[in-house]
């Protein structure tokens, strides 16, 4: 997940790295999809191409504010997914502290852009599949703002251990949208079809996962933070959990790639 401290056992450090590599590959694929399939055509003014993807509202002729929000949203999302994980690499932080600071400011600013445009599209433009998922992603947005503010303030106060934990939480919250897709598609793959899923995202599994996509990663991160300071048994158990998360991330990525992204490239 991030900077293994000296007390971290090898299995825990390696399982964190395994999850990191799986997530990096996955987020780069997602960033490529967002850039190529959504952001680029929107920049060229090709609304028709974008509307062939499963967006909720997409591009609407004459809706300047709505279209600008969508463009700002996907541009922010592309950058967040492309570079976000690099902020967690200890080697990069230590080697290039100036870069880490600048990239951190960019990440936090774009996260806030993503939340502001997302809230606008959900509640004012009417881009929502259903009320439950709209509430879940709005809560995700509010938590993003809270985690970004905490990470930012702690960095300015040079309280770096706490900053690291809040920055990881901010990253996982920003990644909720990505995790939502991996979880839904992975679930549909494993079940060989929808099972507790609806088009309004209010089936039993949907309701669990629209909140779980950011609450479960936050809970795993808390276990990891505790394991860093715990004994060998807790470290081994957490290592097993992170290795499982790495496997599930790969499974979800394969399913999201096959069902959601590849058909639109
Ligand atoms: C900051 C983290 C976020 C990222 C990285 C992100 C990413 C994305 C991406 C990639 C899409 C395109 C979906 C696709 O085609 O698969 C999208 C769409 C959307 N997002 Fe976000 N999002 C974030 C936060 C939010 C928040 C907090 C909200 C609402 C409160 C939100 C609301 C929306 C809406 C409504 C759409 C659909 C727009 C449409 O269909 O016209 N997003 N988001």
What does this protein structure show overall?
With 265 residues, the protein is mostly helical. It contains ten helices and no strands. Helix 3 packs antiparallel against helix 5 (97-124), helix 5 (97-124) runs antiparallel to helix 6 (131-156) and helix 8 (176-190) crosses helix 10. It binds protoporphyrin IX containing FE. Protoporphyrin IX containing FE is lined by residues 34, 38, 53, 55-58, 70, 73-74, 77, 80, 111, 114-115, 118-119, 121-122, 127, 137-138, 140-141, 144, 174, 177.
Shape: globular
| Major sheet details | none
**Beginning-to-end CA distance, first to last residue:** 30 Å
Helix share bin = over 70%
Structural class, please? mainly alpha
Mean pLDDT: 96
| Secondary-structure element series | HHHHHHHHHH
Low-confidence stretches: none
Helices and strands, with pairings:
Elements: H1 10-43, H2 47-51, H3 64-83, H4 90-95, H5 97-124, H6 131-156, H7 160-174, H8 176-190, H9 204-228, H10 232-261
Helix pairs in contact: 1-3, 1-10, 3-5, 5-6, 6-7, 6-9, 7-9, 8-9, 8-10, 9-10
Bound molecules: protoporphyrin IX containing FE.
